[in-house]
Amino acid sequence: MNTHPISIEHKLDAAVAWMPPRSPLAMPAQDFDQPFTDPNAPGVKRNPMDWVKRALIGGPALVLTGAMIGVFYSWQSADGFNLIESVWLFLVGVTFFWITLVVAHTVAGLAREFIAQKPQIDGISPLSIAVLVPIYNESPIHVFGNVKAMMDDLTGQSSDHEFTFFILSDTQDEAIALQEERAMGMVAEQGRLFYRRRHNNADRKTGNLRDWITNWGGGYDAMLVLDADSVMSQHGMVGLADALGSDPTLALVQSNPKHFGAHSLFGRLQQFAGAAFGHLPAEGLAFWSVREGNYIGHNAIMRVRAFADCAGLPYLPARGGKHTLIYSHDFVEAALLRRAGWGVRIVPEVTDSFEEIPITLIDYILRDRRWCQGNMQHLRILWRKGFHPVSRFHMGHNALSYLMSPAWFALVLIWISASLVAYSTPQLTPDAGGQVGQSFLTQGTVWMLAFVYVLLLAPKFAGAALVLSDPEQRKGFGGTWRFCGSFAMEVIGSIAVAPVMMIQQTIAIIRICLGRHESWGLQKRYQTGYSLPDMLRFHRVETAFGLVLMVGIASGMITLWLLPIGVSLLLAVPMSAISGLNLRRKNGTVALMTAQDLKLPEILQSAFIQRDKLAEMLARPEPVPMAAE
User: Fold this and answer.
1) How far apart are CA 272 and CA 278, in angstroms?
2) d(CA 17, CA 361)
3) Which residues make beta-bridge pairs with 350?
4) How many helices, marked H, and strands, marked E, lie in the chain?
5) Angstrom distance (rounded) from CA 562 to CA 564
6) Rg, C-alpha atoms of the chain
7) Which of 225, 265, 557, 588 has its C-alpha lying 20 to 30 A from 33's C-alpha?
8) Which of 461, 454, 450, 538 is CA-nearest to residue 500?
């Protein structure tokens, strides 16, 4: 283990930091308008098979989308082709292409499950690794408890890698900062754990990491970046280190974190979905991205010098001659590393990588708004100089995932408009009651849209089939019938929440277009519940729209096909209220069972134990200093 002595520095702002001697490393901001190649990068060898894999993903999506557009066009053009129908056709094409890409990722993930072999890792170079945990007003009990569990798990690990932990605090709440310092004093181990607090948290997380790199980064080969709620076992950490140490062309290796610790209804649904079928898209992404992978900002390892030389972020021009941070920095940093000649790889096979998730629907939406704001910035970056085509795709696809919501909403509005036209002028269509409008709402089109909905659910059913085909996996979910019940709950829950997310993401996009920015502040991780007035205020737009929709459906003015959307939007507040319900029973069991509930991984057991110990110690009053005689 690292044996740097702990030194206590008294800064001008009176902050106290337990840190090793400085080892500065320059981190210049990159220029998006000038291509850049790192002279230290070995380069990524081109493999024609990589593009064959990508063709197998994108080709069927393009063919199916073309066929869908052709069918729709033949139906719509039978009685003329107007502007609204053109918009409808464009939106259908875009949304269908995005859906088929998701399905293709799942198919690739299934293929990788069956045919891919675990790569043989030879010639591993030992690495000096800094495990970095950036925090901002987080629970010291959870952060320091998690870190203590990970340090204990690494004790006696057999690899030649050397791990040193750094808790990098940007906390602005003085009471929490005091608890951090107390917790540090309780769990600190000589040369294994360091702590630094910035009183001026300039540039948020990117500034926090840049501060560490430019002051201490020169002393380490690699940095393993975690989130405040991340936990990794020694197998996960060593697995990432081995993957990086065995391939000198890689600058970044990303794991696929699993969810843990959820007790609320919303959290349990997310945790079940991740365990049952959420891994398949990650497997598919790893299959075709190869060394043009991506970075999600945590639970990943990277070479410090390569990151410093190639991934320094500039500011983006903003309105009024100002500049703004790049908020969703991770995708951009991965693209910059690949642009400079380094490889970026996703390794879903590295297990025991965990993260916690938002506990209520509102918490999830608040986090999603911030991500939306950051991901929309990618549209301004992906066209800049020197980026690899796959890196451009990652940034574009990520932004497109949010733009799908206003596209879906536009389709709903067109459908409502067509229904109103049919109702007001029933002589235009022969359908009884005027329930279907223009030619693009014929019975054939409705069946085609039903096919789209089936494709949306196909990844879930593919994951469920994989579980049901494996007796061990079925046992991990509590048996066949319990799994089927949980699966049905998740499907119903995802269908119910989808229209709410459509409205909320559309609102987020509109706010961004108007220049309004979301607060990039503290994520609420551990406290549940919102008051009824807060929920009514938060969901007022979708509730009002759902009410109008339901009145229109009840009066026969709007097609019954929109009934599920209307019900979901009208019930947004009740759904939000029950999303935070605690599902843990008195006997310790919990609904929506996963393998974690049958046998909790040892590292998570240890993390919970360390949290409890630390909570007990921090609850004790601080000793009163003895007066000098």
Assistant:
1) 9
2) 37
3) none
4) 21, 14
5) 6
6) 26
7) 225
8) 538
The 353-355 sheet, strands edge to edge: 231-232, 353-355, 258-259
Tokens of residue 212, six digits:
């560490």
d(CA 186, CA 205): 25
Give per-residue burial for 10-21: e unless 16+ CB within 10 Å, then b.
Answer: eeeeebebbbbe
What does the pLDDT read at residue 490?
Answer: 95
Residue 323: its pLDDT value, please?
86
pTM for the whole structure:
0.90
Supply the DSSP symbol for 124: P
Please give the pLDDT value at position 70: 83
Nearest to 491 by CA among 277, 283, 279, 281: 277
Give the pLDDT score at 8. Answer: 37
Residue 323 bridge partners (DSSP): 317
Cβ distance 157 to 234 under 8 Å? Answer: yes
Q: How far apart are CA 481 and CA 358, in angstroms?
A: 28
CA 108 and chain centroid, separation: 20
The 10 Å Cβ neighbour count of residue 28 is 11
421: CB partners within 8 A, 6+ apart: 428, 437, 438
Q: Is 344 helix (H, G, I), strand (E, B) or coil?
A: strand
Q: Collect the ranges in the chain with pLDDT lower than 50.
A: 1-16, 429-440, 627-629
Do 302 and 621 touch, CB atoms closer than 8 A? no
Tell me what pLDDT residue 430 has: 39
- CA nearest neighbour of 416 among 95, 79, 93, 88: 88
Is 218 within 8 Å of 190 (Cβ atoms)?
Answer: no
What is the rounded CA–CA span in Å between residue 596 and residue 598?
6
CB atoms within 10 A of CB 184: 21
Helix (H) or strand (E) holding 509: helix 480-513
The tokens for 108 are: 């690739």
What sign does the CA torsion over 419, 424, 427, 431 have?
A: positive
Tell me the C-alpha distance between 585 and 75, whole Å: 54
pLDDT at 49: 86
Contact 57, 111 (CB under 8 A): no
Structure tokens at 438: 């223009």
CA distance 108 to 305: 34
The Cα angle at residue 584 between residues 580 and 590, in degrees rounded to 5: 110
Residue carrying the six token digits 């509930």: 597
Q: Which amino acid is at 401?
A: S
